[in-house]
Fold this sequence. Notes:
By secondary structure, this protein is an alpha/beta fold. The protein is about 40% helix and about 10% strand.
Amino acid sequence: MSETSYRIDALQYANWSEKIFRQMRDGKVDAVHVTISYHENFRETIANIEQWNGHFERYPDLIFQGKTGDDVRLARETNRTAIFYGFQNPSPMEDDIRLIEILHTLGVRFMQLTYNNQSLLATGCYEKNDTGITRMGKEVIEEMNRVGLVVDMSHSAERSTLEAMELSSRPIVITHANPAFWEPALRNKSDSVLKALAQSKGMLGFSLYPHHLKGKGDCTLRSFCEMIAAAADMMGIDHIGLGSDLCQDQPDSVVEWMRVGRWTKKIDYGEGSAKHAGFPPMPAWFNDNRDFGNIEQGLIDVGFKPEDTAKIMGNNWLRFFDENFGTL
């Protein structure tokens, strides 16, 4: 790999606009994995892809659709940002395993097996009982491995996550979460999960979503970067990156859509957020894509070498893209 330092964010769900795309360029962000579906079915997901096609047509000087690691390199060469599609729920494949290949052909590169709840495939982290990967889940993982659709367990419960690693012939990812040893949020991951993820050559993307941070919006940059250093000691420098979970310019009603979808008529607060399901304030040092440089400097300030800082900022994700987005 080139010694170039890339910037890759492994998860965002912003209220997309020209302003945000220009901020990506101002922040020198080479690639972003964007959520194009939470609870949408297949047809609704196609409508979301149509909307992204419109963004690509209107802002070709800023963004384009990415499908391979080489598209990240192209983004750097042409001063643009490559956009990679992903799902936070398996709902777009409905109950039809044959849609997985079609979705991959359309450019989808990540799919979570669960979003907090029990799904047809696995158990979410909000469920009391974790029954692990289902019969259908085993078949879906195999098919995802075949076509190059990456298994994401960011919102999944512990047993299901560990079983997914065992069943998958390719490394899995947790695109947006933090270690529970630093902040015991419901969705942050145990030492057992983090160690197994590294042993299986998977990737963890550190989240900037305030509910996942120590001190929430008051979290300091130094605390965040010291947490990354501790995780690097546990997992190794080659298995970590960033997955900000940035939800920029979204109204609070979007949090309700994320958590509630269509499965309940009540508000699912979760994650210790008491009686408010809105967005908490971001830490002062990370508000949008222009602030990735703050993290890069913070990593250097806590002792990371330049080459290791580059791995965390994006080079590890680029290697993962190269190795895992193609068919077997």
